Amino acid sequence: MIEIRRTTLDDWQSWKALRLNALRLAPTAYGETYANAVDADDHYWHRWWLERGDDALRSIGYLDGVPAGQIACAEVPEFPEPLILAMWVEESMRGTGIAGALVDDTLEWARAKGFTRIRLGVTEGNETARKLYLRHGFSSLGEFEPLHSHPDLRIEWMARDL
């Protein structure tokens, strides 16, 4: 059974465990590095909830009660639409529907907030993630920029109407 839970500060340790695994196993998929995050103090992890409040969504997907994946989406000043900042599904849980459920719940959140479009960036070469986003109606904007954590790689900007 798949369950998507929109998190609160009380969930920060589950969030941290998933995020560290994501950064360790997919180091070129994110703008931050495992080395930075692993030694971060509790405040670093709490900031997701303390600084963003209702302007952000942080959800954890559970499969049969086990944390299986996560997604973060937030309103950011640089864009008129919310931005999916990060997504991860544990490798052993892939192919179960968790990724799709996380994306669908995030789209629902953005619609409920009154947005008409949503955006994300995907690292070039991450075809699994790119195909997931294409299946969910995202398309390339034809815009690219260096990945913050690995400037030798580029992210491709994608968006979809809601």
From TrEMBL:
State whether keyword Oxidoreductase applies.
Answer: no
Q: Which InterPro entries match?
A: Acyl_CoA_acyltransferase, Bact_Acetyltransf, GNAT_dom
Pfam families on file: Acetyltransf_1
Q: Return the protein name.
A: GNAT family N-acetyltransferase
- The superkingdom of the source organism is Bacteria
Which residues does UniProt call coiled coil?
Answer: none
Entry keyword set? Acyltransferase, Transferase
Q: Which residues cross the membrane?
A: none
Q: Per its UniProt record, what PROSITE patterns does this chain match?
A: GNAT (PS51186)
Q: Which residues form the N-acetyltransferase domain?
A: 2-160
The stretch of residues making up the signal peptide is none
